[in-house]
């Protein structure tokens, strides 16, 4: 299958192509896992899974067209210089967020990266003399810190502070 990464397309599955992802990954220290899967359908599946996870976020602004499948491009979203992002282009930070998430999934070596572990409801558990304290710092579906930082100012409620309005 070929990935459709055309902005505004009703059949788009990804914000980036396999070629874009490969070019990005080459500049990262954790490139080996991506290189191992890039040539086959596993690479495409990882990109689609990463995009689908990003699609569950609530972003500022509105979709550029009602017919587009993915949430980006969008109207009404300002960059750090108070310039509106173009409504026909996916911003760099969205593409980088998808590629960083795809790298995390590839490096985890698991197809169920986003699946629940079954331990979410427990703080600790013990069986006989064995006791385990659950690490809740990373839960299923949670974005890696690098990805969360890339998206923080564009998600609703993101940015970590109050919005300022010029008078």
In short:
This protein is mainly alpha-helical. The protein has helices at 18-25, 31-38, 41-54, 92-108, 145-151, and strands spanning 62-63, 74-75, 124-127, 130-133.
Strand content: 5-15%
Uncertain runs: 158-167
The total tally of domains equals 1
Cα-based radius of gyration, to the nearest Å: 18 Å
Secondary-structure-derived class: mainly alpha
How are the strands ordered across the major sheet? 1-2
Q: Determine the fraction of residues in helical runs and give it as a percent range.
A: 25-40%
Count of DSSP E strands?
A: 4
Spatial shape: globular
List the helices and strands and how they pair.
Layout: H1 18-25, H2 31-38, H3 41-54, E1 62-63, E2 74-75, H4 92-108, E3 124-127, E4 130-133, H5 145-151
Antiparallel strand pairs: 1-2, 3-4
Helix pairs in contact: 2-4, 3-4, 4-5
Describe the model.
The protein is mainly alpha-helical. The protein has one domain. Helix content is 32%, strand content 7%. It has helices spanning 18-25, 31-38, 41-54, 92-108, 145-151, and strands at residues 62-63, 74-75, 124-127, 130-133. The longest helix has 17 residues, at 92-108. It is globular and about 60 Å long. 24% of the residues are buried.
